C-alpha cells in the first residue's frame, strides 16, 4: 500500500510538476488548464463578479482586472469566461447595463444583491480564496521551491524506508508528526481568524 501510494505520488509529480510559478501546477488544474478538469467553476465566478459589482459599477475589463488582483496574478479569467456570465447575470436581472461610448457598464441590481445575500454561504470557493489577500507572488515562488525541495527529500527518505522495517516505522512516525504539525498550524490560523 505504501509503495503504491508512493508510485502514484511520483507519477503525479512527474506528470504535473511542482512548478509554483505562473499557473502553479495545481492552479492550472484548479482553474482549468487545457483539457484538464476545472475546479474553478463558472458558478463560483458568478458570485465573485457580483461581489465585485457591489463595490461600484464596472465594465467587463475592470471586472477581469479586479478578479486578477484578488488572486494576486495567479489567475486571470478570460473574456470568454466573464462576458457570457455577465450576459447570464443580465438575463436573470442580477445586473443592469448602461452604455458609455463603446463600453457596457454593469451595475448590480437589487435582485442581484438579494441573490448574494441568500446564496453567499454557497460560495465556499470564493471564501476559501480569501487566503490570497496576504499572498505575495514572489513569496509564493520561494515557498514553492521550498516545498518542492521538502517533497523531494521526503520521497528520497521514503525509498530508504522501504529497505528496512525499523526505518519504515521511523518514517511513518515522521509522516504522522508532519501531518500533526501542519494541522496544528492550520488550527492556530483558524483560531486567529475568529
TrEMBL record:
* Residue intervals of the Transcription regulator PadR N-terminal domain: 49-118
- InterPro entries hit by this protein: Tscrpt_reg_PadR_N (IPR005149), WH-like_DNA-bd_sf (IPR036388), WH_DNA-bd_sf (IPR036390)
A UniProt-annotated Pfam family? PadR
Checking Gene3D superfamilies in the record gives: Winged helix-like DNA-binding domain superfamily/Winged helix DNA-binding domain
Q: What is this protein called?
A: Transcription regulator PadR N-terminal domain-containing protein
From which source organism is this entry?
Answer: Staphylococcus carnosus (strain TM300)
Amino acid at each position: 500500500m505504501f509503495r503504491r501510494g508512493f508510485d502514484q505520488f511520483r507519477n503525479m509529480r512527474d506528470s504535473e510538476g511542482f512548478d509554483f510559478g505562473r499557473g502553479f501546477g495545481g492552479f492550472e488544474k484548479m482553474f482549468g488548464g487545457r483539457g484538464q478538469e476545472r475546479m474553478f467553476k463558472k458558478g463560483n465566478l458568478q458570485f465573485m463578479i457580483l461581489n465585485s459589482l457591489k463595490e461600484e459599477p464596472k465594465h467587463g475589463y475592470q471586472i477581469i482586472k479586479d478578479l486578477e488582483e484578488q488572486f494576486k496574478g495567479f489567475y486571470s479569467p478570460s473574456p470568454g469566461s466573464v462576458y457570457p456570465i455577465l450576459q447570464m447575470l443580465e438575463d436573470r436581472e442580477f445586473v443592469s447595463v448602461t452604455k458609455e461610448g463603446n463600453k457596457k457598464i454593469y451595475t448590480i441590481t437589487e435582485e442581484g444583491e438579494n441573490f448574494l445575500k441568500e446564496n453567499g454561504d454557497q460560495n465556499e470557493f470564493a471564501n476559501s480564496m480569501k487566503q490570497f489577500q496576504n499572498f505575495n507572488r514572489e513569496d509564493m515562488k520561494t515557498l514553492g521551491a521550498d516545498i518542492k525541495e521538502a517533497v523531494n527529500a521526503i520521497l528520497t527518505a521514503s525509498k530508504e524506508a522501504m529497505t528496512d522495517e525499523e526505518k519504515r516505522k521511523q518514517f511513518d512516525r515522521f509522516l504522522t508528526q508532519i501531518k500533526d504539525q501542519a494541522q496544528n498550524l492550520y488550527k492556530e490560523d483558524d483560531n486567529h481568524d475568529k
